[in-house]
UniProtKB/TrEMBL annotation:
Keyword Membrane attributed: yes
Protein name from the UniProt record: Pilus assembly protein PilN
Biological process annotations from GO: type IV pilus assembly; type IV pilus-dependent motility
Residue ranges that the Swiss-Prot or TrEMBL entry lists as coiled coil: 57-91
TM helices/strands, residue ranges: 21-39
A Pfam family this chain is assigned to: PilN
Keywords of this entry: Coiled coil, Membrane, Transmembrane, Transmembrane helix
Species this protein is from: Marinobacter similis
Record InterPro entries: Extracell_DNA_Util/SecSys_Comp, PilN
């Protein structure tokens, strides 16, 4: 006898293939969902890592800015201290000069003449004094010209003194102070 299959095998085959297709679609969707989840997790981790690096850089930048401000402050203090030290050194260096200037003022002072007022403005010394005669004033001016510590004497006024100092003349003189070279000072 002939074997005839009367079952609807084509519909079963189609239903089976449709089930396989749905399973494959669901499997692909699950795999795609898993891959999307892994990709999103990886991106979130990378973003968090980059944000932590950015935060670290910002805190390091703030620390460096603070250190830069401290360095600038220290540089300013150092410059102020150096300026003070320079002023002190200048004063220390000029201390013997002032003594020598007064000593030279006394050495150039001839007999019969005395100073009543001394003023110093920069390197110019203004002198007001009394002299017995005009020749004493000329001697004083010559001694200033020969001095190593003074130059350019300039007599601006000579007048008769008041009645209490009869015979005396009052004079106003200005002279330029100079610092001699060490060799010229040693020769004298």
């Amino acid at each position: 006898m002939a074997k005839i299959n009367l079952r609807p095998w084509r519909e079963e085959l189609r239903a089976e293939k449709q089930k396989q297709f749905v399973v494959m679609i669901l499997g692909a969707a699950i795999v795609a969902g898993g891959l999307a989840f892994l990709w999103k997790s990886d991106m979130d981790n990378r973003i968090a890592y980059q944000q932590s690096r950015n935060a670290y850089i910002e805190t390091a930048t703030k620390k460096l800015d603070q250190q830069i401000r401290e360095i600038e402050s220290l540089k300013q203090k150092r410059d102020e201290l150096l300026a003070r030290m320079q002023v002190i050194q200048d004063l220390q260096g000029k201390r013997p000069v002032i003594v020598r200037v007064f000593d030279e003022l006394v050495r150039t002072l001839p007999d019969g003449l005395y100073y009543t007022d001394l003023k110093r403005a920069g390197d110019r010394v203004s002198i007001v004094g009394m002299a017995e005669s005009n020749s004493r004033i000329s001697t004083l001016m010559r001694q200033f010209e020969e001095s190593l510590w003074f130059a350019d004497p300039n007599l601006s006024n000579v007048s008769a003194a008041d009645s209490r100092r009869a015979g005396y003349s009052q004079f106003n003189l200005s002279v330029q102070q100079k610092t001699p070279e060490p060799e010229a000072e040693d020769k004298k």
